[in-house]
Write a structure and sequence with these properties.
The chain is of the alpha+beta class. The protein contains 7 helices and 15 strands.
Length: 367
């Protein structure tokens, strides 16, 4: 499957007038004109590859650090600031609410009852993020976070309808339409993006953890050997007071050095992730809105869930504590908040579970 960078490069060059052809897995054959070639620093014909192992025979490697990617900013700056695409009208068939909820929602400590189902038009906000993870190595990429702020839910939009895959009308011939301002729900978009980034960086983080554990084991073995040697000298029956003082100084110095090296190791493998928004998209879509009553013991609260025709399933609702979308939820006893497992986890101090949406810290006093 082409990488996001390869898809973006292919689409952008095609839009700019270049001839672009897939040349196998991870490669594109590109023919550009003189003006476009000058903008991007490309020859008339180039083979662009997107994996280092394919960089051979004059092929040009394209990565997020490549000069050609930096020069693409020139092409992007010429594009419109706002684009609108109006889909063909289609009648939405309302789903079976009970079946949709049974497939897409799991309540761990409560029950729900369907109150009503209605069709409506929802506005989705999609934020394209560039992310960079920095440790002793670097990894990065792109991820898109789609959110429905009104329903506090997040679709996947894994399968778009056919009309979104076809070229749109010529901008010079298309009717212009003013797009109303929509406030971007940044906290929800960032929470959704963080979830996606952690998944995307799974192999990268696992590799870091293996190397960190290997280096930590070597440190323990090296300084542990020195520590044992000093302690054996201290255990000798006829050691002089002066020799004992020297060995105690060595023991303390070894411990200080070990702690400093462990701190350096932690800094080396600490992962810093930076999210940078690159674009914001809006999608207006006919959806089915399902209102349910969530019940926990003697308390209850109403909540809205959304079924959209693109995913053909229930959207994951955002946790009321951390805003990360979840389909497996817990309800709090006080206000029936919809929570992920982490936001109803036990307190580290007293072991009592408490709702992170109701309380910023454990309600029990910890003297």
């Amino acid at each position: 499957m082409p990488s996001p960078l390869q898809q973006f490069t292919r689409d952008l060059l095609h839009h700019a007038g270049a001839l672009v052809d897939d040349a196998g897995e991870g490669a594109l054959d590109v023919i550009v004109g003189d003006a476009l070639g000058a903008d991007l620093g490309l020859a008339g014909y180039e083979r662009l590859v997107f994996h280092p192992e394919l960089e051979a025979g004059g092929a040009r490697l394209v990565s997020y650090e490549s000069p050609v990617v930096d020069r693409m900013e020139t092409l992007v700056s010429r594009l419109g600031r706002v684009a609108a695409l109006r889909p063909p009208a289609a009648a939405l068939k309302a789903p079976d609410a009970e079946s949709a909820l049974a497939r897409g929602l799991t309540l761990q400590n409560g029950v729900y009852r369907v109150r009503r189902v209605e069709t409506a038009e929802a506005t989705y906000v999609g934020v394209l993020f560039e992310y960079n993870a920095l440790a002793d190595e670097r990894s990065g990429g792109l991820t898109t976070a789609w959110v429905n702020a009104d329903a506090r839910s997040a679709p996947t939009f894994a399968t778009w309808p056919a009309w979104l895959q076809t070229p749109g009308p010529d901008p010079a011939e298309a009717d212009t339409e003013e797009v109303g301002g929509v406030e971007v729900p940044w906290p929800m978009a960032i929470a959704k993006a963080r979830e996606a980034v952690v998944t995307s960086l799974g192999d990268f983080l696992a590799s870091l953890a293996r190397r960190r554990d290997r280096d930590a084991a070597r440190l323990r073995e090296y300084y542990g050997t020195i520590d044992e040697e000093i302690r054996r000298k201290l255990a000798r029956p006829r050691i002089t007071p002066e020799a004992r003082r020297r060995e105690m100084d060595r023991l303390e110095a070894t411990a200080r050095t070990y702690r400093a090296r462990v701190g350096d190791l932690g800094d080396r493998y600490r992962v810093r992730v930076r999210l940078t928004p690159a674009a914001v998209m809006l999608c207006r879509l006919a959806i089915a809105r399902i209102t349910v009553r969530l019940m926990r013991r003697t308390a209850s609260a109403d909540a809205t869930f959304v079924w959209n025709p693109i995913d053909a399933r229930l959207e994951r609702r955002a946790c009321d504590g951390c805003l990360v979308p979840t389909a497996s939820a817990w309800l709090c006893d006080e206000r029936v908040h919809y929570l992920c497992e982490r936001c109803l986890s036990p307190c580290d101090g007293c072991g009592r579970a408490y709702c992170r949406a109701c309380h910023s810290r454990c309600p029990r006093g910890h003297a």
